[in-house]
Structure formats: C-alpha cells, structure tokens
Amino acid sequence: MNTPPKGSVLVNVCIIPPAKVGEQCVVLAQSLKEGTVSVLDGKTKFAHMTVVMLRVDEGDVPDIVKAVGSALELQRSFQCKYVGDYKTPGRYFEISYQKSLEFMALHEMLLDLLKRYQLNPGDPYQESYFGIYDTEQQRNARETGYDLAHDRYRPHITLLRWEEGRAPKTSLELPRVDLSFDLGTVCIYLAEENGAVYQELAHFAIK
C-alpha cells in the first residue's frame, strides 16, 4: 500500500521544550542546513521530542486526547538531560537526551495507553519514517504502531535530514550549549508520513 489507509491519521504525542531550548535547536539546525531535505526553522518545522507515535482511525482522536489528558494529570516533571548528538542511518541528525527511568516510565505508560487505538495491529502501514528497520523494530511496529518503542526508544529532538549522499562522513563539532530542560509541556499533534508534526490537537502542562 503506497498511500495511508483512508480515514487514518498519524498521531504524535511529544514533549515541547521551552522556547529558549527550541530556539537553540533551530540555530544549530540552520547552521548545518546545507544539503538537507528537511531542517528545523522554528515555523513550519519546530523542535519537539516524540514520546509515542502511531497511526489511528481519525474518529478515535477525541478519545485519544481525553485518555492522554487523564493519564497526564498525575505526571510529575523531571529533567530532560542533554547528552550529545547522533547521526542515524536514515540520514537524520538528532539532539540526544538521557534515557532515564522517568523518561522510560512516561514512554511505556503512553505506549500501553495508546496501543489499543493502533490501526491494523499486527500489520501496520509502512510509514516513510520507518525506513529500513531490523527485526526488533518490525515487531515493535506490529505490536504498538511505533518502531522505536520499548528498548529501542531514544529520547531525541530531530534537527534535520540530509539529502542522499550529503550526510557528513565525520563527526560534527557543535557549539558547547546545554540543551537540558525540565519537562513542562506535552502535546498531541497530527504528523505527516515522515513524522514531522504540523497541527496541534491538545496541549498539557506538567507541574
């Protein structure tokens, strides 16, 4: 199937960093934008950290928003600690965060909550952002709708994606900035097939 199932949408539950951190991410991305096909600009593409993403029936979106809102009422803030950067095999360049117990608890809670809404469990639509993935990622996609679930989850903010053949062969030297922050905002967005968010559905403040 080359087009998403009719009546379906891709939902991204994500953490939005404070404005200062988001702006710093845009500055870093823009400094590396040569040869990219997608890059943060602070307007149409802005900094966000996916916690869970999956394709669902459009009619289930109101129930998803309500369920996530209820689940987050007891969520406490924790530090999202910046630990470096990562170039993925799929030509993405990411800002990496510590895979803490608090982070994984939030990920697993939302994953368990939302997998019941997954479209076509066991035989998910092959999203463009899946790319080439291994056996474990395939299993995650079948069971949860998200290939980077469970042990494969890595907290990160994607800065850009390079064109084919344009990704640097060597490590990049980034300016010394601390992009750590305390969790304060979780949002639900609609996302395009490559995973980039574009329409806010809900906004939740974390105390």
Q: How would you describe what is shown here?
A:
The protein has helices at 19-31, 61-71, 101-114, 135-144, and strands spanning 8-15, 36-39, 49-57, 79-80, 82-87, 92-97, 156-162, 181-182, 185-191, 197-205. It is an alpha+beta fold and 207 residues long. The chain has one domain (8-199): Cyclic phosphodiesterase (Cyclic Phosphodiesterase, Chain: A). The strands form three sheets. The chain has a four-stranded antiparallel sheet with strand order 3-1-9-10, covered by helices on one side. Strands 2-7-6-5 form a four-stranded antiparallel sheet, covered by helices on one side.
In short, what is this structure?
This protein is α+β, with helices and mostly antiparallel strands.
Question: Which secondary structure elements does this structure contain, and how are they paired or packed?
Answer:
Elements (H helix, E strand, L loop, with lengths): L7 E8 L3 H13 L4 E4 L9 E9 L3 H11 L7 E2 L1 E6 L4 E6 L3 H14 L20 H10 L11 E7 L18 E2 L2 E7 L5 E9 L2
Antiparallel strand pairs: 1-3, 1-9, 2-7, 4-8, 5-6, 6-7, 9-10
What's the structural domain tally? 1
**Would you report the number of β strands?**
10
CATH class: Alpha Beta
Order of helices and strands: EHEEHEEEHHEEEE
Using only C-alpha atoms, the radius of gyration works out to: 16 Å
How helical, in percent, are the residues? 10-25%
Record the strand order, biggest sheet: 3-1-9-10
Q: How many angstroms separate the termini?
A: 43 Å
Classify the fold: give the CATH topology.
Answer: Cyclic Phosphodiesterase, Chain: A
Largest sheet: 4 strands, antiparallel
Question: Can you give the mean pLDDT?
Answer: 92
CATH superfamily: Cyclic phosphodiesterase
Q: Which spans of ≥5 residues are poorly predicted at pLDDT below 50?
A: none
Give the overall silhouette: globular
Percent of residues in beta strands: 25-35%
Total of DSSP H or I helical runs spanning 4+ residues? 4
